[in-house]
TrEMBL record:
It comes from the Bacteria. GO terms for cellular component: cell outer membrane. The keyword Amino-acid biosynthesis does not apply. TPR repeats lie at residues 214-247, 316-349, 350-383, 384-417. SMART domains: TPR. Keywords: Repeat, TPR repeat. Gene3D superfamilies: Tetratricopeptide repeat domain (1.25.40.10). This is Tetratricopeptide repeat-containing protein. PROSITE patterns: TPR.
Amino acid sequence: MTLSFKPIAFWLFILGPLTTWALVPADTSSKKISVPITAPGYQISDYASYLKEAITCFRQDSIDKGMMLLSKSIKNITLQKDVTRIMPYQGYEVFSLVKDIADNSNLSPAEKQLGKDFFKLVFTSQPSDKNADKILDGFLKNAPNTVFAKRLKLLTASFKGKSALGTELNRLLKDSPELISANTMKAEMLFDEHKYRECITYCDQILAVWPQYAHAYQMRAKCYYNLDEVDKAIADYNQAIKFFPGYFVLYYDRADCLIDLEKYKEAATDLRLTLQLKPNYSWTYYNLTRCYKNMDMPDSALYFINLHINQNADDGDGYNLKGDIYCDRNEYETAISLYTQAINLEPDRRTFYVDRGDAYYYADKLDDAIKDLQKAISIDKSYPFPYDRIGDCYYQKKQYETAITYHQKAVKADPTYKYAYVGLNLSYTQSGNYLAAIDAAKKAIAIDSTYANALGNLGWSYYCAGKFDDCIKYSYKALKYQDDATYAMFNIALATLAKGETGKAKQLYTGFIKTCKEKKYEIRDGATDDLRELIRKKVYVAESKFIIEHIFEQKVE
């Protein structure tokens, strides 16, 4: 990059935080947001006028006047708000250097002249001037070996890429270990290298010198987020917002943290604040959709995902998320159509095929589901869900041995994938291999001791194996973690009947049915199907008929 492009880089970087959103105080309260954005007190046109005059003076060799106007433009806007609080290294350092040259009596005459020559060259070089870099390198090479000169060298190097920074940065940090700009650059480099712990250390050092530096809190928050220390990230975003409440990105990023913590209402508040400060910003509509979807507010979710799609018509994720909303509403055909649109836009996305395959599964289009899930596997063989769902498809088709094969593939892809063990349990139970079924359910429970489905299925496998006490034991454990697990209720009553405790069994059936009616739990056909199976096998026939007719109030054919 030639020097002639550096003014663009400098001032695009600086003007970003100087637009309206940076100057407006944000309403950070949790109440419903209805306060409109007000106009800033400072007029950007005034700032631009000073800058334009400064550039004219530089071009006329009126360097002192140019620096004075440049300094005045910066002072004018920082009177409204200290925008340097949110600036990354380059913007912060440009402001600091201009201020030092204009105001700092500690600089030597040679240093001040060096700074003036630097900014004159920066603001007067033309795109056709191929010698600008050489000129700048020349007088920086001959500059005095001072901290100020090293700051200019580092700033120049920063526009040539990260690889050019190491030597200059290390020299500057050695001479001035508490210099905010150098520490900021070091922290930014470490963050880019994903060295988050080291970045945090430098952020700590920066904040010890300047506790109001919102950018340092923001960097440290991003580090904590990437380290899965979300509560610490939120605490830092809170601090950054405290010191610079008009910066929309802080609310947007804090919303990400809140979504991870499943605090969707708070996240939605932050995202709406983001839109107040920066209308139509990036993926704000998309994330608002996620929040409202998870708050079970599908109408609001659809409103925002439509806004996102209107803004990003070629984004497959938007159609995919909209498909998820319809899938949650059991409108599978509409969901399938939306997933298809997502696939047409991005035909190599594994998740799109997985989601459409899942919708086909629930729509009872099992062959279409298997086809999509196989496609997902061809894209990424390491993901366990498609294997597991194919196993579920074959289970529904009553092809249990094939189902077992795919559930085993899911376990091979991820031995901690608890759902696949439940799938194995069901298929082994249907195949009559109760010992294998029991073993599979126990492996799921070893991964998650609170997994109600695994506990309940283990209870049923024990029932099928004739171990009625174990059935009762694990069915009660399932109810402990899922109080609407009605299948577990009736397995307890059934196993009690199978033990010959007919009076107690009748009491249990009566009590469980009462609970289901009071709490409006669904009573599935399986509750009576199991009793009818006892009648078919000629076991406890009279008792089973009594329970069906007098407790369930159904006819026995």
